[in-house]
Amino acid sequence: MTYALRAKVRAKHFPAVGNAPPKHVVQDFVLEIPENGFVALFGPSGCGKTTILNMLAGLDRDFDGEIDRRDDEVAYVFQEPRLLPWLTVEDNLKLVLDDGGETEALIDAWLGEMGLSDVRNVYANRLSLGMARRVALARGFITRPRVLLMDEPFVSLDEPTADRLQQLLLDTLAAHPAAVVFITHSLREAITLADEIVFLSPSPTAIERKATIALDREERRSEQAIEAVRQRLIGVD
Q1: Do 183 and 47 contact (CB within 8 A), yes or no?
Q2: β-bridge mates for residue 38, sequence order
């Protein structure tokens, strides 16, 4: 099997601050993401999910372990859209692109795919949160990453908007495959999106178990199918 990303983190500590001792945040974390696989990291608040994503992204290199991936093949969609408010939607997308003849065509295509063509020249601070998250999603995909890291990209949205963006993500991945590591606090969201869910322990984070999600695309649109899997995973007969 070919892997888009492989990680082995033996330990991760945050240094001591003041009189507090060093904090042990990750222990014996091993992850292998196959090409175009979708893995959701699911665990309690504060267990170290974002720390793991930062290590996978290469933003945090201060740990005992190895990450096998290329920096130029990774894109990161953060929990907040992180758009520059004084720039238009188009200019926010241009920030991650090299100047070249295909830049305008790429922006045209991705604005169309994300339903953003009408806000191309709108400043980012005028966008709704749902629209801003669409722009962040376009910015993640527009560089054609091999690996897409996503840190709760649909958090704080109302349920209908989050549902629409989840389906938009699945549609986009069907057209533009990439391996995804996705952080979520919602088991329902993990089941809707992922091929595999990795359940994490409280800090120091370790993998408690993994679950394969064998749902086809239509079943991922079915609340009944998703709930049946959720009930099985939480051990309800």
Answers
A1: no
A2: 180
Report H helices in the chain. Answer: 49-57, 89-94, 103-113, 129-141, 159-175, 187-193, 223-233
pTM of the full structure: 0.94
36-66 pLDDT, tens digit per residue, is: 999 999 998 888 999 999 999 999 999 999 9
- Can you say whether residue 45 is alpha, beta or left, with left for phi > 0 and alpha for psi between -120 and 50 degrees? beta
* Termini Cα distance of the chain: 35
CA distances from 78 to 47, 75, 194, 198 (A): 17, 10, 18, 19
CA torsion through residues 36, 32, 187, 79, sign:
negative
- Residue count of the chain: 237
Query: Helix 159-175 vs helix 129-141: angle between axes, to the nearest 10 degrees?
Result: 20
